[in-house]
Amino acid sequence: MGKHSRPGPPNQPSRAVPSVGDGDRFAAYDKRRRAPMDVWRRHRPLRGGGSHLRPGEPRALEEWNGFSYEPVGTARNLAQAQQWVNERDEGCA
To answer: What are the two backbone dihedrals, phi and then psi, of residue 37, each rounded to the nearest 5 degrees?
Structure first.
C-alpha cells in the first residue's frame, strides 16, 4: 500500500468530497457551501477534550450556516447534544 493511498476499495469514489453535477451551473458554488463531510450540526465540550469524555458535562451546539459553524445553544450533557444533532439528520432524510 502506498504512502498516500486511502483505505477502501479502489473502485469507489472518495466519500470525503461530494461530487459536482455536470448539468448544474452552480454545482461548484453549492459544493463550497456544503458543510465539511456533510455534518450540518455538531457539538463540542465546553471545556475542551474529546467529545466522548465526561458525558455529563455541558456541550456547545454549533450549526453550519453555509460558510462556517456558528454557536446556536448549549446542551446539558452528551445525550442531549447527540439528540439535537440527530434531529437535523432525521429531518433531511
So the answer is: 55, 25
Question: How far is 85 from 64, CA to CA, in rounded Å?
Answer: 12
- CB proximity list for 42: less than 8 A, separation 6 or greater: 61, 62, 69, 85
Q: Which pLDDT belongs to residue 77?
A: 93
* Continuous H helices in 1-93: 27-33, 78-92
What kind and span of H or E run contains 45?
strand 41-45
CB atoms under 10 Å from CB of 40, counted, come to 17
pTM of the prediction?
A: 0.62
Please name the residue that has the C-alpha cell 445553544. Answer: 73
